[in-house]
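Support reply, case 0932

Customer input (verbatim):
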Amino acid sequence: MAIATTDPLCLRLADDLDQAFPELVTDHQGLVFGVAVRVVGDSNAEDVAQEVFVRAYRALKRYPAARVREMRLRPWLARMTLNQARNALRGRRDHVDIADVAESRQSNEPGPAQLVQRAEEQSMWRRMLDGLPARYRLTVALRHVDELSYAEIAETLGRPLGSVKSDVHRGIALLRAAYDAEQRATSQEAV
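Our regenerated output:
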């Protein structure tokens, strides 16, 4: 039986929210922004992320200290972001590219050849990820881009753990098949 450990940041948030909250933002801004980008796209992701942190602060302010101490911040923030992003999408008809996160991440490649190769790879993976059905696209991105555990994804999406694992597995299998097909097509063009 695993013993749950309390996140030290949760302890600090429970003791002094105003002092510890900037650390929460710094530690989790990548997760929040990444989920927002995948749901609403680059144009609105910043607004969604900002609103999530405002709502998180207000919620933490209202919660009893005991509840804050026992929180699991990553799935809580991911779920809050998903809900806020979905709310932002209501009324909009255009659905946005899921993998723009790849472009927003800094590349430290020293030479132009590596930069071009990396951009081509990112474009390929973005295209393949976009080609996945939404159910698989989100679970794969949460697992392999945002690095949430299966349990955190299940908690975030409010779905059974087995379903999440299955969706990630199926999504990866679909990505692998798309990648293999792309590689075969590329090697045939070279011949």
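We compared this against your earlier run and they match. Two observations from our side: DSSP finds ten helices and no strands in the chain. Residues 161-190 form the longest helix (30 residues). Please reopen the case if you see a mismatch on your end.
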